[in-house]
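To: structure desk
From: M.T.
Subject: fold request, one chain
Message: Could you run this one when you get a chance? Sequence is below, nothing fancy, just the single chain.
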Amino acid sequence: MWRLGVKIMAGNDGPLSEAGPALHRELALLVQSGLTPLAAIQAATIRPAEYMRKVDQYGSIEPGKVADLLILDANPLADIANTKRISAVVLGGTLVHKTSH
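Reply: Done. Structure tokens follow.
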């Protein structure tokens, strides 16, 4: 479906405590199913913002948008598993977690 232009959106309806690990598994499964790593990342970022009609606030990194970010130690475009290599978490522009290396 994705190859034919259908927009894919990642999501989770499980417990909030499991949302992060579940999303990482979902991204890996999307890539395993044929999406590129970029398309899988878009399924978890810009696609939900488009669906919610909130691209003016979420889905990409731009001035004026909500700054919810994962800072990674490795490129997820090279290997989608790198989304698990989290160096820092920023929510609403505030650093809420940083790993020590």
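Reply (cont.): Strands lie at 69-72, 86-91, 94-98. Let me know if you need anything else for the meeting.
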